[in-house]
């Protein structure tokens, strides 16, 4: 399978987490109860969800603990994950913000150590929004986890009106990883190449090309693509996580070329739904 150019996001986990902990340490009680872009979840709930992600990856990955987890096909994964996430978040509503911060600060470095021990080229978990039902290389599995933590931090920041953690260093691997969903979005679309240019602070292009085996994506522009899209990184990550709908993303995107291909490209989804 063609998963594209490997990326190693492991050095960024402690940097991203430090930004989050610094923010959380300044929030008052009202801010912890503020609604977030995740329907039905407050800031407290979203932080608890990140804690859940930490504990789940340490338990399953580092410790090999399956517990009551029942493997399901990718097509059924969304509802199973949503139920597990909702149950943990509901239970964690009895935990104080100080305890949640302590859990992030305590288990985060353990997760960093686990990532550092991983063989990036070994088969990892499936990244269903990139290539379903096939084990992804561990580097893509880890990159997927990084995108989730970073996006949730952005959602928390949006909820409390405190933008940040959006430097090129922290955002570039999110854009890079999310565009691995482009070939799946373009599957079945007529055309040979699609270039996506992501504006500042990324200022970089990626191109999906079609060959006899399907679409693949690589960094760099195409000299004469069927369509060229130019959009801001905020637009890309929000449409990829369905913080906005493709129609809204289209209004924010400059398109030069075939509209049907542009619509297919903006239909990419880089999360489990």
TrEMBL record:
Keywords carried by this UniProt record: Isomerase
Domain of life: Bacteria
Domain Mycothiol-dependent maleylpyruvate isomerase metal-binding, first and last residues per copy: 16-156
Pfam family membership, one: MDMPI_N
Keyword Isomerase: yes
The keyword Lipid metabolism is assigned to this record: no
Name under which the protein is recorded: Maleylpyruvate isomerase family mycothiol-dependent enzyme
Source organism per UniProt: Cryptosporangium japonicum
């Amino acid at each position: 399978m063609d998963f594209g150019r490997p990326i190693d996001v492991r050095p960024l986990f402690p940097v991203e987490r430090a930004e989050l902990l610094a923010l959380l340490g300044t929030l008052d009680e009202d801010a912890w109860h503020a609604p977030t872009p995740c329907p039905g979840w407050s800031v407290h709930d979203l932080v608890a969800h990140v804690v859940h992600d930490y504990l789940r990856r340490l338990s399953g990955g580092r410790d090999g603990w399956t517990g009551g987890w029942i493997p399901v096909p990718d097509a059924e994964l969304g509802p199973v994950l949503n139920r597990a996430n909702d149950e943990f978040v509901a239970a964690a509503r009895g935990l104080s913000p100080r305890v949640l911060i302590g859990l992030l600060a305590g288990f985060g470095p353990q997760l960093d150590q686990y990532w550092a021990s991983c063989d990036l080229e070994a088969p990892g978990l499936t990244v269903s929004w990139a290539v379903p039902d096939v084990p992804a290389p561990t580097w893509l599995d880890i990159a997927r986890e990084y995108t989730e933590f970073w996006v949730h931090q952005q959602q928390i920041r949006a909820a409390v009106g405190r933008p940040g953690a959006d430097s090129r260093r922290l955002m570039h691997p999110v854009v890079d990883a999310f565009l691995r969903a482009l070939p799946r979005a373009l599957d079945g679309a007529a055309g040979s190449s699609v270039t996506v240019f992501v504006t500042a602070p990324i200022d970089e292009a990626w191109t999906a090309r079609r060959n006899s085996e399907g679409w693949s994506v690589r960094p760099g522009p195409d000299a004469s693509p069927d369509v060229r899209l130019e959009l801001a990184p905020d637009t890309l990550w929000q449409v990829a996580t369905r913080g906005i709908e493709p129609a809204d993303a289209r209004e924010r995107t400059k398109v030069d070329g075939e509209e049907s291909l542009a619509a297919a490209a903006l239909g990419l989804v880089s999360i489990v739904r």
